[in-house]
Write a structure and sequence with these properties.
This protein has 319 residues and is an alpha+beta fold. It contains eight helices and 17 strands.
Length: 319
């Protein structure tokens, strides 16, 4: 496990980052999980640093799903043995914000940081998963159903001899494809999650789950948003919703903070942007497979600097 040395992080926060990146890059090996737990138990500052990193990176989203679930379970068990009252507070605090960790372990298909996946479904439909995505697939005699647990998917529906409807459920809305290609993304950050549907071919019918409003038909070229109650057209679109299928981000006056968040989905470690530069508009094409090159381009073309706490923790600031 990481120890303070000239080659490794010297303080608890940097050690926590090193652990998180190790799990993210190499997976939740049992020996690694055991060593991590020993490190967390060895010093209260270690546990505090681990929780700080978890909070900054979206409640353990820096970790692969299995590792997150295992370390979360271990943490709750340890707290139960120590102080029951504090354990309850911590458990509820983590259970709400980190619920996707449980779902990932049950997902039929999922991807981690920087990963994309293409799956051919039984009817010939093609499902693409962007980074940080989890989805379940249910096919039976009466239906074809995808359940998007988190992240972003693209679908090209196949011709089904049984003429079963092709539906996508994504928490905030239910969608039915009408012989089509489309993308669906869940934005789970912030106080109110948002779902985005972008149709590239034919049409998709979308209906909210929290209101009795009538379904809306989104046609090719349409991009709509929903918060589960209402549906509205996205008139402030700063990217091509399907560009990630070609391995790129196509930014059009995209706020720098949004672009940095997109790149962070494809880069191991922590990539942050100061609030005072987050609204700067940026345009360009950025390769998802080479986020370091994208960062170099930003540093060369924008009046910003990169502050490295470690090579895995970068914050962009005003120059």
């Amino acid at each position: 496990m990481p120890r303070s040395s000239r080659h490794e992080p010297a303080d608890a926060v940097e050690q926590a980052i090193a652990w998180a990146v190790r799990l993210q890059m190499h997976g939740p090996l049992p020996a690694t999980l055991q060593a991590l737990q020993q490190w967390r138990d060895a010093d209260g500052r270690h546990e505090a640093a681990w929780q700080r990193i978890a909070a900054m990176r979206g409640q353990l989203s820096i970790l692969p799903p299995d590792a997150s679930r295992a370390t979360l379970d271990a943490s709750l068990a340890r707290r139960r043995q120590r102080r029951q009252s504090l354990k309850l507070a911590a458990a509820f605090g983590l259970a709400g914000t980190g619920s996707w960790l449980v779902m990932d372990t049950r997902a039929d298909y999922h991807t981690g940081t920087g990963q994309r996946l293409a799956v051919t479904l039984p009817d010939g439909s093609v499902l693409h998963l962007n980074a940080g995505t989890a989805v379940n697939v249910q096919y039976d005699g009466a239906r074809r159903l995808l359940t998007l647990l988190r992240g972003e998917i693209a679908i090209a529906t196949g011709v089904d001899p049984q003429q079963r409807p092709f539906r996508v459920h994504a928490g905030l809305a239910r969608m039915q494809a009408l012989g089509t290609r489309f993308t669906v993304r869940r934005f789970d950050e912030g106080d109110r999650p948002i779902l985005r549907l972008a149709v590239q071919q034919d049409a998709v019918q979308i209906q909210t789950t929290e209101s009795g409003a009538a379904a809306v038909l989104a046609r090719a070229g349409d991009c709509v948003l929903t918060d589960g109650v209402r549906i509205w057209r996205d008139t402030d679109l700063h990217d091509d919703p399907a560009a990630w299928l070609d391995g790129v981000i196509v930014a059009r006056d995209m706020p720098l903070g949004q672009l940095v968040a997109e790149l962070a989905r494809h880069r191991h470690g922590m990539l942050l942007c100061d609030a005072d530069i987050a609204q700067r508009p940026v345009s360009g094409v950025f390769q998802l497979g080479d986020p370091e090159r994208a960062l170099r381009v930003l540093l060369q073309t924008q009046a910003i600097v990169a502050v490295y706490r470690t090579r895995f923790w970068i914050t962009l600031k005003k120059a």
